[in-house]
Amino acid sequence: MKQLITLCIIIIQSSAAWAVTPLPYSRRTRPYNGFTSGPVGDIRTVGMAGATAGLGDTFLAASSNPAGLAMTLGGGDTNLSQNEIHDGNLQEYSERIGLGSIGAAANAYPWGFSMGRVPIGQEGQNYILPSGSPAPFNNQASHISIATHEYRFAVARIFWKNRLALGGSLNIGLGEEEIGSPRNMGTLPLSAYSDDHHKTGVSGTLGAMAQFSRRLLLGVAYTFPMHYAFEAEPTPALPGFLQPMDVPSRFDVALGWIPNRLIRGSAGLTVIGKTPGAALLRDDSSLVGDSAVYQPKLGLAYVFLEFGTFKGTLFTGTYFEHSRIEGVSSRMHVTGGIEVKAWIVTTGLGVDASSNYKNSLFSLGLDLGRILQGLNLMPTPTPPRQAGLFHNPIYLSDEGLARPLVENWQPGGPDMNPLTIIKDLPENVKKEMNVIRDQFYDFAKPTEPRALPKPSPGASPKSSPKSSKEKSRLSKKKAKKTSRSNELPVVEDDVR
Description:
The chain is built from six helices and 19 strands. The chain is α+β, with helices and mostly antiparallel strands and 496 residues long. It has a single domain, classed as Porin, CATH 2.40.160.60. The longest helix is centred in the last third of the chain and has 28 residues.
């Protein structure tokens, strides 16, 4: 019986092994590329094909150009998104690359701020280690992956009468290289193991945005390269697995246009720098980033629904991915998405599709401002006129736009400066707690019985009339009786 069970395990592992990609090298000799070429992030970034350097009006859209935090961001933005990427140029198309992001941004004229976690790149899947690998890992399945993400802290400010915004971000990166037991195979590995290593890096992004007539915007930004200096350490499953990892520089230039609050578009160009000597995880001989490449981009966003607390936005775009991988063809991408906001919750679905590539996106956001307004902890701004369904977007209007985009801005309504709101928040919380306490006491206080009037001393209780009609009838009867008594003496005198 024991021999039969062992034979079944060997058959299951062998059949699964045939479905796993073999790793073509038994010793790693080249550094890794830690950058994903396609746009990742929120629904605006992916849906508009990454053409956001000329807008920068959300947390993730401003990650490529932080100057947008001061120029185009209206109020605040919070976002949580998850990208599910299948890229046959990096690894097996069936294998998933999961990239998540979370962050928040706020505009406090003339400043803008943001902080959050941004995905940069990832490769990873199950591989069969070659026969030349050390025993007992040779010819066995292992999960091998590399990943990079960054924690970004950005600030921006408006200058020159709202015509220029300058911004920058501090990017603290975290690189990961991991080799361990296979995942999602349904097999029994010889023994569970994990060899996980991390390194940090520091970089930065500088950006500028200029505003011209008719709200035409020019955005320029540069992100410095980042290097993760993984040191050579023994890795029993794959010798030389730990290698340095590089993220290339990026230069963005884009034109943005915001004629009104319903529609905005952008066209730009991204130049991705070199990562000399880097190679794919799946193949030590496939060089990545041997030369700088460019990506032209075009994106559009349109608010097609605005009614009450409901808002719907459509996104579309396209970009050309100039391949960074040696011997792999470039490809054209088409992007799109939809975002729906209902009261305080915003959800979005997006897609980026191309040959041998698909990025499916889900995003979630909460309107913290509306939550605080509902709790009476911050003032409620004057809302713009509702656009309804499929309103004509071809017109010029500054209604509902960020303050720097309004030509002749005049103060109106309550002060919506986030810094003032935060400063007043403790006092507003105290006031609301007092109101709630008083309402609770009023509700919980027992009702006292109504005191009855005390009768006067010596007075006998008399029954009161049962109704106003009866009281009136008794009054008339008494008056009639009094009249008759007054008439009788007169009659007697006449008789005498």
